[in-house]
């Protein structure tokens, strides 16, 4: 895994099929055993329910973090440009289209900052995003050079510190038993803010100023040629963290959303609920049930343990857009074990209504250590000593879907009577069908997938992920299979 420019996915087989596999030993190749197709004269292992398509897919993405640009800035201009081409350019690699960014500092910023740290400046006269001109702005602009139509959404990790009850960017002090002790955030233990409480000062003066803070953020980025289409009010609103954070109750969020929604609607910016990282769907339901706020919430973002609430929210609100807002972050090892786990997360979210799947760090230095002292994974790692980059296993796992599933595709539910359920399928706007599957066995596995009125057969190598793209001319929607 030392290549910088992975092989192009555009090679097409003799019958128009594309077929790619990833294993621990070889992260991107076409298996020797070809894909075959024939009329459905035998029972397939899996039926694709093309007759009952589910949610429309908006796209895949990543989060732009300051430390990612620090890492990429170690590369030569040519290598950095090639990395970003592989990540964002249409038809090349991961083909990312819907990305996230922070509002001010997040936990992978170079350090804490907000856009206005002047206590009492409710008029926001000192508001400025100039800090971002050194990192996030060039980062996003470099991505947009390859993907001009890139869609962006944003959320804060924390508000200006003087908006909070404890006047500090964090909510928690480092645990003296943890490895983060060396990264003391300066918060006294007796000034912490607990989960399940509102960390923001909930006066009308603060709520109004904070909503206008969002508005000035949107405007400042628009002036730099970067349009933001949607915001979520808070990253992980239940988490009392040692890095930039702010806890909220659903009631506190409702109070803030009454100010935020009109501020965003004046700019044509959507508002989602999130991000949600607890398995309690009632937190979402309380906000959606508010008669003033609920009708204006266009979607919801879930990450980490919030994934356990997704099935219930999607069942109760099938019209609500579901974003997987941050893939779980790993431990900086970027190993095959975690890449295999990443596939299970993708299966969970798409099977439960997700229309966007956002990875976390695009790039980090090897080891992936944050300003606050822990390691996380990334799609690309950079060696600070050599100034060279490499794509990680998770880049290829993401690429198995994002490189082939087009915006506007419909997720296709599957039906198996024999346990062949470890796959995902999508019907693209151009008529092609994408089938991605995991073989978690130590021997090759044969798949027979019913696509319309035909059987598509392929063999997945041992311990692999594979993607097969069935051309539109081979796809015909057949009547639904026997129930």
Question: Could you explain how this protein is built, in words?
Answer:
Helix 8 runs parallel beside helix 9. This protein is of the alpha/beta class. Helix 5 links the parallel strand 7 and strand 8. The two termini are 45 Å apart. Helix content is 22%, strand content 22%. The protein is built from 9 helices and 21 strands. The chain has an 8-stranded parallel sheet.
Which descriptors would you attach to this protein?
21 strands; 483 residues; 9 helices
Average pLDDT over all residues: 94
Give the strand content: 15-25%
Please count the helical segments.
Answer: 9
Range of helix content: 10-25%
Strand tally, please? 21
**First-residue to last-residue Cα separation:** 45 Å
């Amino acid at each position: 895994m030392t290549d910088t420019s992975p092989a192009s996915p555009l090679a097409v087989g003799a019958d128009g099929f594309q077929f790619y596999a990833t294993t621990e030993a070889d992260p991107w190749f076409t298996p020797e055993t070809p894909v075959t197709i024939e009329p459905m004269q035998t029972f397939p292992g899996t039926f694709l329910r093309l007759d009952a398509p589910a949610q429309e897919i908006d796209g895949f993405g990543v989060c732009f973090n300051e430390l990612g640009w620090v890492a990429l800035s170690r590369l030569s201009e040519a290598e950095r440009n090639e990395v970003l081409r592989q990540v964002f350019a249409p038809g090349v690699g991961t083909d990312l289209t819907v990305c996230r960014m922070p509002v001010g500092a997040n936990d992978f910023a170079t350090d804490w900052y907000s856009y206005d740290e002047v206590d009492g400046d409710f008029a926001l006269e000192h508001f400025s995003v100039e800090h971002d001109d050194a990192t996030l702005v060039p980062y996003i602009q470099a991505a947009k050079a390859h993907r001009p139509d890139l869609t962006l959404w944003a959320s804060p990790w924390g508000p200006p510190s003087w908006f909070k009850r404890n006047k500090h960017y964090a909510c928690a002090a480092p645990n003296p038993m943890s490895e983060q002790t060396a990264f003391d955030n300066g918060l006294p233990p007796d000034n912490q803010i607990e989960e399940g409480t509102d960390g923001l000062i909930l006066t009308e003066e603060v709520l109004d100023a904070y909503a206008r803070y969002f508005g000035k953020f949107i405007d400042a980025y628009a002036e730099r040629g970067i349009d933001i289409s949607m915001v979520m009010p808070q990253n992980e609103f239940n988490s009392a963290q040692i890095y930039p954070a702010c806890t909220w109750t659903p009631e506190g969020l409702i109070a803030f959303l009454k100010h935020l929604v009109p501020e965003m609607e004046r700019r044509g910016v959507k508002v989602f609920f999130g991000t949600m990282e607890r398995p309690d769907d009632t937190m979402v339901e309380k906000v959606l049930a508010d008669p003033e706020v609920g009708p204006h919430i266009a979607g919801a973002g879930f990450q980490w343990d919030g994934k356990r609430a997704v099935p219930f929210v999607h069942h109760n609100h099938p019209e609500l857009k579901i974003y997987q807002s941050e893939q779980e972050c790993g431990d900086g090892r970027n190993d095959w074990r975690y890449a295999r786990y990443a596939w299970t997360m993708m299966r969970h979210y798409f099977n439960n209504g997700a229309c966007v799947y956002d990875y976390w760090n695009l790039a980090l230095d090897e080891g992936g250590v944050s300003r606050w002292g822990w390691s996380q994974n990334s799609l690309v790692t950079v060696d600070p000593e050599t100034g060279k980059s490499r794509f990680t296993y998770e880049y290829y796992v993401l690429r198995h879907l994002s490189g082939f599933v087009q915006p506007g595709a419909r997720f296709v539910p599957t039906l198996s009577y024999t346990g062949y359920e470890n796959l995902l399928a999508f019907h693209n706007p151009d008529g092609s069908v994408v089938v991605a599957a995991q073989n978690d066995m130590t021997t090759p596995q044969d798949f027979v997938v019913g696509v319309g009125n035909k059987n598509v057969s392929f063999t997945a190598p041992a311990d692999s992920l594979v993607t097969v793209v069935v051309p539109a001319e081979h796809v015909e929607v057949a009547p639904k299979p026997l129930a």
